[in-house]
Amino acid sequence: MTSYLIIFLIALLVAFSLTPAASRLSESWGVEAKPGGRRRHKTPIPKLGGLPVTLAFLAGIAAIYLIMPPSGEDALRLRGVVIGTLVVFVGGLIDDFKELPPWAQFLIQLAGAGIAIAHIVFIEVFTNPFSGDAVWIDSFPLVLVITIFWIVGVINTVNWLDGLDGLAAGVGTIAAMLFAWHSYRLGQEAVAAFPLALAGALLGFLPYNFAPARIFLGTAGAYVVGYNLATLAILSPAKIATALLVLAVPILDGIWRVTDRVRTGRSPFYGDRGHLHFRLADEKVPTRTIVVGYYALSLAFGLVAIFATGLAKVVILTILAAFVLLFLIWLSFRRRTE
Fold it and tell me: How far apart are CA 174 and CA 299, in angstroms?
């Protein structure tokens, strides 16, 4: 446990120490989120938060390789996670500077997914929730499609979630901590250390990002968090179910927004204020109340995912999906009638 604490604290302290410098650098380079559009902040906010988070995460990873280096198949897979993280970070950083078109962002996400797959990080087996048996996917092309869809989907879910101060960073911290705990319980010592390093990096960044935010994660930060949640969820049994429940509300919200945009003839790749957290903010719900509410739901459903049986997870996810869908329909109807 001492090793885990060292890794966590290194990542936390590096992020906490570097974030003010990243904020000043962002201001001096003019890499800031301007007022207007989807965001309602009143002054420009630095958006190079992905820089200290990623550097802190990499510092934690360096400590992992010094203290408890991965071995066997885990070494190959985790190396792929590191390389993929660097690729999506650089791509996200370019977007923070240049605001890339959707197709370019999609290519960056595909490149990260391709690196993961090349390092045997892919979804080839899942657990039947009704019987508890492992079900293998025999078709490798189907494995590729499912894996790419999962990784790209989670990256975009986190990117869309990063709309209110501290929301994506806090939910990412909770998810990473639950992943670390789950992996440790399964005896995956090195695998457990990776999400722990991510949690430390995010927790060190969060004091500057929580409402009122002094710096945003930016695309680079959101990509790194989303990519690691997606890939690390693949590396141990039942963690995809954990990720689905921890991120259930933003995933369902993202599916709703994409469907609604396509239905109304708009591009599904361009953001708007139709996401649940934005709609709640537009209903004058305080930002901190929304964010803490998301935290509570993520933690509660993450714990359910770890301790509940397979069938219970399906039932809870179904009920949650129905509730979120009905709530989104109600908000849409309310907006149209105002």
Answer: 6
Query: Residue 122 in contact with residue 73, Cβ under 8 Å?
Result: no
pLDDT in tens, the chain (338 residues): 799 999 999 999 999 999 999 999 999 999 998 876 666 667 899 999 999 999 999 999 999 999 999 888 889 999 999 999 999 999 999 999 998 999 999 999 999 999 999 999 988 887 766 666 777 888 899 999 999 999 999 999 999 888 889 999 999 999 999 999 988 888 888 889 999 999 999 999 999 999 899 999 999 999 999 999 999 998 876 577 778 878 888 888 888 778 877 777 776 766 667 777 878 887 788 889 999 999 998 898 888 877 777 677 778 778 877 887 787 777 766 655 55
* CA–CA dist 235, 206 (Å, integer): 26
Q: Which long-range contacts (CB under 8 A, 24 or more apart) does 143-149 make?
A: 144/117, 146/122, 147/113, 147/116, 147/117, 147/121, 147/122, 147/123, 147/234, 148/110, 148/113, 148/117
Of 277, 268, 316, 321, which Cα lies nearest the Cα of 295? 277
Contact 95, 220 (CB under 8 A): yes
Do residues 60 and 201 make contact, with C-beta atoms less than 8 angstroms apart? yes
**Where exactly are the structural domains of the chain?**
2-237
Please give the Cα distance from 47 to 93 (Å, whole number).
10
| CA–CA dist 158, 16 (Å, integer) | 21
202 neighbors 195 (Cβ within 8 angstroms): no
